[in-house]
Design brief:
The chain is 23% helix and 14% strand. The protein is an alpha+beta fold. Among the domains are: 68 residues, Trypsin Inhibitor V, Chain A (2-Layer Sandwich); 31 residues, no CATH class.
């Protein structure tokens, strides 16, 4: 029993010694790197910035930068003449402090840039534009005019001409019956003596002297 206990104690001492030796053999640089790997920072979006400004911004966060010309593979000399067109990993993601950020750049004299897509670069979702809502024009109700009712034609009754009474027909006086005297005795009996030539009943046989008066003597 005592031998078994002594063996257990000896084994524990040997393990403790090995762990102490392993911890002492780890260098300060390795320990610092391990501690840095445990810290993360949020990667800023530097696309659109010139390479010098993007590099300064990333290095201030303890990150490393690796820039590559995406068009012609030219050597990068003056960083302010280059513009960042792609970033790997993409901005707004969390990365470990000390990580290397790969930037695709183009020279400012290049009209277009053709950045090489990276596996870690998140695709940009295509959002369909929202069609504007076009309001329908207000419905204008045009009042319907009532039908035109033509007035019946005015019938003008003919005016009867005034009744003109015919003047009374006056019968002309009847012509006196022809008077004829046989002799002056008849003339005197009728009370017509003496009788003038202009009076009815005058006859030359009554005027013996022919002076126009008959039965004057």
């Amino acid at each position: 029993m005592k031998k078994t206990l002594a063996l257990i104690v000896l084994t524990g001492l040997m393990l403790t010694g090995c762990a102490t030796k392993q911890a002492s053999s780890q260098s300060p640089a390795t320990a610092a790197a391990s501690a840095a790997a445990d810290r993360t920072v949020e990667l800023p979006d530097v696309v659109g910035l010139t390479l010098d400004k993007a590099t300064d911004k990333l290095k201030d966060l303890g990150l490393k930068v690796e820039a590559t010309d995406v068009n012609d593979g030219k050597s990068i000399i003056v960083k302010k003449n280059w513009q960042v067109v792609s970033e790997d990993p993409v901005g707004k993601t969390n990365v470990a402090e000390g990580s290397t950020i790969k930037l695709g750049v183009k020279h400012l004299t290049d009209e277009t840039a053709t950045p090489t897509p990276t596996p870690t670069q998140a695709p940009v979702p295509l959002v369909a534009p929202v069609a504007p809502v076009v309001e329908a024009p207000p419905v204008v109700v045009v009042p319907v005019a009532p039908p035109v009712v033509e007035a019946p034609p005015v019938v003008v009754a003919p005016v009867a001409p005034p009744v003109v009474e015919a003047p009374p027909v006056v019968a002309p006086p009847a012509a006196p019956a022809a008077v004829s005297y046989a002799n002056c005795a008849a003339v005197r009996a009728a009370g017509a003596a003496p009788i003038h030539i202009s009076q009815p009943g005058y006859g030359s046989h009554l005027d013996r002297d022919g002076d126009g008066w008959g039965c004057d003597k």
